[in-house]
Write a structure and sequence with these properties.
With 284 residues, this protein is of the alpha+beta class. The chain has helices spanning 16-25, 27-81, 86-91, 96-101, 116-132, 169-186, 199-209, 236-245, 273-279; strands spanning 157-159, 166-168, 192-194, 226-229, 251-252, 269-272.
């Protein structure tokens, strides 16, 4: 039969009886030892828990630093050793727009690497393209066999930029080229007062101007090879510019219309010389 040994009570600890008596006499005081025990234990927990928490946080921070700093640095060092930088890597990637639209990037080298010869070649290409454009839309610039003065078919005539003056196709195209140069210099179109004239129109002009007009059927207006300019362009800088540049495009103020010429003095009268010499009324 087992023996029960009673452990000696701690001399400093209160007995159960003493605790019950204290509880009956001083209820509030009875909780003091328990509170004291809690106060003893809780501060100790408060002192150790922050350390544990900060230790955990420090571990997380160290791990993040290793992932976000150490690994990229090591990869960057590897790329640098291979001679391939981040900027070069980014340059090989398509832009967002290119990726979304699947548009091809330009294969031309940077402008700083293009030679002077290449720039000149590009300029010559631009010039050739501009030359391919029609200076007068719908006008082929071809001269058909001569018909009768004042009776040129409408199919052989072209309207100029003012929408009312007509000339033979080749003369019209040459004058349109001159006009394009004029616009570049002066900012406005050449002002025209007359172009092709039918026989009826030649008779009316002869009746109105007398000796200042050629006989009906003998005017180069009847061939669609002559124009009359507005008088505002027959003096000063514009007049000088025309005399210097118009011959380049085949247009001249003929000798007979100049001071001392065989005909009336008409600064405003200009003719397409090539056409006049071949098919018109040439007064040389």
């Amino acid at each position: 039969m087992a023996s029960h040994r009673v452990q000696p009570a701690d001399a400093g600890a209160p007995t159960r009886r003493q605790l019950r008596e204290a509880a009956r006499t001083r209820p509030a005081a009875a909780a003091a030892p328990v509170a004291a025990v809690v106060d003893v234990v809780a501060p100790e927990r408060r002192r150790t828990s922050p350390l544990a928490r900060w230790g955990t946080r420090a571990g997380v921070l160290v791990t993040l630093a290793a992932v976000t700093v150490a690994i990229p640095l090591s990869q960057g060092a590897a790329r640098s050793e291979e001679g391939f930088t981040d900027a070069q890597a980014d340059a090989t990637l398509p832009s967002t727009v290119e990726a979304l639209t699947s548009s091809a990037t330009s294969v031309l080298p940077p402008a700083s690497l293009v030679s002077g010869d290449a720039t000149a070649l590009r300029a010559s290409v631009d010039v050739s393209r501009s030359q391919d454009r029609e200076v007068l839309p719908g006008c082929d610039g071809e001269a058909n066999p001569a018909s009768a003065n004042g009776q040129v078919p409408q199919s052989d005539l072209c309207y100029l930029w003012d929408g009312k003056t007509q000339l033979r196709a080749d003369a019209a195209e040459a004058l349109a080229e001159l006009n394009a140069m004029w616009v570049t210099r002066w900012g406005t179109d050449l002002c025209l007062s007359s172009g092709y004239r039918t026989l009826a129109e030649q008779r009316a002009v002869k009746a109105a101007k007398g000796s200042l007009a050629a006989p009906a059927g003998r005017s180069n207006h009847g061939w669609g090879l002559a124009v009359d300019l507005c008088t505002s362009q027959t003096t000063g800088a514009q007049w000088e510019w025309l005399n210097e540049n118009a011959p380049v495009f085949g247009w001249e103020n003929p000798d007979w219309a100049r001071p001392g010429g065989s005909g009336p003095y008409e600064r405003w009268h200009w003719e397409y010389t090539k056409g006049v010499m071949a098919d018109g009324e040439y007064y040389g």
